[in-house]
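Q: Could you predict the 3D structure of Pre-peptidase C-terminal domain-containing protein?
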Amino acid sequence: MPKFRLGFAALATLIAAPAAAQDTFCGEAGTGGQWIGGTAETSDIATADSFGEQMALVLNGNRFVGLFSLSEATEVRIEAAGRGNGDPTLTLLGPDGTEVATDDDSGGNGASRIETTLEPGEYCAVVRSFDDSPMTAFVRVGRIDMEALTTGANDAPDGGPSAERVQSCADGRDLGVMGADGLSYQGSAAEAGFARFTLEAPAAISVTADNAEADPTLTLIGPDDETVGENDDFDGLNSRIDASTPLAAGTYCIALDAISDRDLPIDVAVSAYDAAAALANLFAQGEAAPPMDGSVAITDLGALPNRLRRDEQISGDATWFSLTLDAPGLLLIEAISSGSEGDPWLVMYDDLGREIAQDDDGGDGTDARLVARTLPGTYLVGVKQVGDQSGFVRLLAERFIPAP
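A: Sure. Here are the predicted structure tokens for Pre-peptidase C-terminal domain-containing protein:
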């Protein structure tokens, strides 16, 4: 069969060039990111004279990554505010690529905001569009004493909502002291919206809220009423907060709410943070490329022919494939749902774990499509269903080689 050959100019409207290779940050999740202060030297927020800020253009379900560093432990504020109708979501990744915090709408008016204390290291602020629509946003990172970009959903004078939150935490269910076995309870957002627990020593922890039918949201509040982290839809419609940096000893409060049904029971758990489990979850979500050492199941498709078609049962956890290209060219990959209920999602990485492209709903309807210029080598492709769905997905891969 002859190879497909065409000029790249004919496909210019379909593609964006992949990020250039560079130093890796946040366990390679920050590859292709931009220093929030413009350069590495001016992005040390611990010593900077002013906050760092960049304008993010997020298209085709992709993401913006803002890089910053801390030369010493610092209380920081990370914000993302969309222009017009933009609705950004914000995820903070630690030096090893694990999630430190995530937020949507805590900045007020659809903006995102994270306030937390971080240890020295290099961090990544990852911004996405909530509904994957094209969006322009401003991303700012600064110390807590610097000027804020957003108003903050919880900002209020004394006696306002913040004071009410403090009282609600004090009146909430007491889970006791965090031990080796963790803590847990079951309750609805309507009748058990607040619960508190105590750390007798600094500890890295995870807080989860499970019941997809209720669609729970989580907020973790620290001893001084500061928001440690917030989350909605970490795993499908369930929520999770990973505090990978040890939290100081003290009493913490869990604020539980639900988007779909506040009267349904929700399973809430506090456990010791498990870095290996957190990394495995990133692989399952497609947020990081798994290693090609056999520890994660990867189906080897071998050398890619001109056209490949394959039907797979795909769930809410990413199914991984590897493929090899023997010449530079253009690669088109589509994930096509074999039914009206499916909503496939696609991501592609190179063999070093650098994200090349990602898409959701870029094809027909809710199907996914991505296009990328490629060099010879091995690539990883992850496919999953959005929203904990499961069903057959047709994976189509086509390669195009430039005319001589």
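Q: Anything worth pointing out?
A: The first helix runs from residue 161 to 171.
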